[in-house]
Amino acid sequence: MITIALSKGRIFDDILPLLKSAGIEVLDDPDKSRKLILDTNQPDVRVLLVRATDVPTYVQYGGADMGVVGKDTLLESGTQGLYQPLDLQIAKCRISVAVREGFDYAAAMKQGSRMTVATKYVAIARDFFASKGVHVDLIKLYGSMELAPLTGLADAIVDLVSTGNTLKANHLVEVERIMDISSHLVVNQTALKLKQAPIRKIIDAFALAVKK
Ligand code: PRT
Ligand code: MG
């Protein structure tokens, strides 16, 4: 049995064509069913639905043989020992710094002043501002980062941006791009050894489909 951990939403939607290229079709629709373990047309392949941030944990500890997870989540979780054979080029976005319209980011970035930054991505934000030699106070949030600059909780946020519509709707502006993000395939090291042939087959099919 091969178990693949996926999160509902954009990653699930974007991985379906890649799964299909590997001959795998998921038989349940996660939006209609309440099942957390989904069957596929392959009797020896199943899909686990987990929170995006839990995917690295499931794969690391062998609860799943492989999974698909955003680079943002991988960098932030600091998961060790996960084999990452492939950038799947799906669920693309970027991680950026954003501030309230009219906020002087350049001045705030100058030595001496101290900025407060709210984010779910504390590790990524810490590394980024440290690399610039700027001292920031970080506030950890779990969602709706956009509210922080609007309420005075923080001067800036570090968050994912895709179309930019969410920032615009909340009178925020993207002032600096930290990095581009896409989702990666992650594989449990032991599973790779014990189930090498079927796992390789999936990796190879994905690799071929990504190139197209
Ligand atoms: O939602 P939940 O709390 O369950 O978990 P999650 O947010 O970690 O999962 P999910 O499914 O929302 O995102 C999974 C992965 O998709 C992320 O880890 C990213 O790698 C990737 N991804 C790609 C995105 C986006 N694009 C994206 N736009 N994840 C989130 N967003 C959010 C962003 O945080 C912001 O709130 O969408 C909003 C911005 O979108 P635009 O288009 O308005 O700019
Ligand atoms: Mg989300």
Question: Describe it for me?
Answer:
- This protein is an alpha/beta fold and 212 residues long.
- It has 2 domains: 2-91 and 182-211, Periplasmic binding protein-like II (D-Maltodextrin-Binding Protein, domain 2), CATH 3.40.190; 93-180, Periplasmic binding protein-like II (D-Maltodextrin-Binding Protein, domain 2), CATH 3.40.190.10.
- The protein contains 9 helices and 9 strands.
- It has helices at residues 10-21, 55-60, 71-77, 105-109, 122-131, 147-151, 165-169, 189-194, 196-211; strands at 2-6, 37-39, 45-49, 66-70, 83-100, 115-119, 136-140, 156-161, 172-187.
- It has a 9-stranded mixed beta sheet with strand order 2-3-1-4-9-5-8-6-7, sandwiched between helices.
- Strand 6, helix 5 (122-131) and strand 7 form a beta-alpha-beta unit.
- It is elongated.
- The mean pLDDT is 96.
- The structure holds phosphoribosyl ATP and magnesium ion.
What is the CATH homologous superfamily assignment of the largest domain? Answer: Periplasmic binding protein-like II
> What is the element string, with H for helices and E for strands?
EHEEHEHEHEHEHEHEHH
Helix content: 25-40%
Mean pLDDT: 96
- What is the radius of gyration computed over CA atoms, rounded to a whole number of angstroms? 19 Å
Bound molecules: phosphoribosyl ATP, magnesium ion
CATH topology of the largest domain: D-Maltodextrin-Binding Protein, domain 2
Tally of separate helices: 9
- The residue ranges in which pLDDT falls below 50 over 5 or more consecutive positions are none
Q: Quick one: overall form?
A: elongated
- The strands making up the biggest β-sheet line up spatially as 2-3-1-4-9-5-8-6-7
Distance between the termini: 28 Å
CATH uppermost class of the largest domain: Alpha Beta
At CATH level 2, the architecture of the largest domain is 3-Layer(aba) Sandwich
Domain count: the total is 2
Sheet-strand content, in percent, reads 25-35%
How many E-type strands? 9
The major β-sheet equals: 9 strands, mixed
Alpha-beta content class: alpha/beta
